[in-house]
């Protein structure tokens, strides 16, 4: 069976430029939608967080304005997340065995910018996935978690790779850009990534470069998950067929 590791941020805040914190966590849609896509594809899922802490959903993600104006959709996502037992008792991210998984997926929310983006141990974990030829995927602010992944020379592991993530334009449109310590698009570019985004903000945009999969925004959650399913399941079937 194909197995996925979903690495979720363990923090419930985002530090702004003035040192104050803004409540966040993971963005609900970016966990709920890919999780269901993976379940429907018959993929075995493990959810893990730094230290195994119970993750917090960014409550703003349930509001009608972030769900097409629908309060019912926000409630549907909330109910779905509450039904996922692994979110209440996640595994310890630092203890996971890469050999047990076919790919890793990192959902966004501003939370990953606080913990995963600054974690050398998470960077080392990502390198294990890359060295094993397994897909690494992240959506929205999730690509911040790619930043600590380094090669033997200390260079960013994904330098020169095509990548996307929450754009400066989108950050400005939600009003956070003027208050942020750093913006994801800027950091991906300065780290050596070949950044691109959709012609229009908030529309689905997924970039695949080898075994690196990135999605620009919440609207990209389903698209990146389905692309992963298509590629990873087919790859697994090819490997299994060759072993027979």
Write out key terms for the chains shown.
244 residues, alpha/beta, 7-stranded mixed beta sheet, two-stranded antiparallel ribbon, 7 helices, 16% strand
Q: Determine the fraction of residues in helical runs and give it as a percent range.
A: 25-40%
> If helices are DSSP runs of H or I spanning 4 or more residues, what is the number of helices?
7
Total strand segments: 11
The gross shape turns out to be globular
The residue ranges in which pLDDT falls below 50 over 5 or more consecutive positions are none
SSE-based structural type? alpha/beta
Strand line-up across the major sheet: 5-4-1-6-7-11-10
Q: What's the Cα radius of gyration? A: 17 Å
Give the helices and strands as they follow along the chain: EEEHEHHEEHEEHHEEEH
N-end to C-end Cα span: 15 Å
Summarize model confidence as the mean pLDDT: 96
| Largest beta-sheet characterization | 7 strands, mixed
Classify the beta-strand content into a percent band.
Answer: 15-25%
Topology diagram in text:
Layout: E1 3-7, E2 13-15, E3 21-23, H1 28-40, E4 44-49, H2 71-82, H3 85-88, E5 91-92, E6 103-106, H4 120-131, E7 136-139, E8 162-163, H5 168-173, H6 184-190, E9 194-195, E10 206-209, E11 212-215, H7 221-243
Helix pairs in contact: 1-2, 1-7
Structural write-up:
With 244 residues, this protein is α/β, with parallel strands linked by helices. The protein is 32% helix and 16% strand. The protein has helices at 28-40, 71-82, 85-88, 120-131, 168-173, 184-190, 221-243; strands at 3-7, 13-15, 21-23, 44-49, 91-92, 103-106, 136-139, 162-163, 194-195, 206-209, 212-215. It has a 7-stranded mixed beta sheet. It has a two-stranded antiparallel ribbon with strand order 2-3. A two-stranded parallel ribbon has the order 8-9. Strand 6, helix 4 (120-131) and strand 7 (136-139) form a beta-alpha-beta unit. It is globular. The two termini are 15 Å apart. The model has no long low-confidence stretch (mean pLDDT 96).
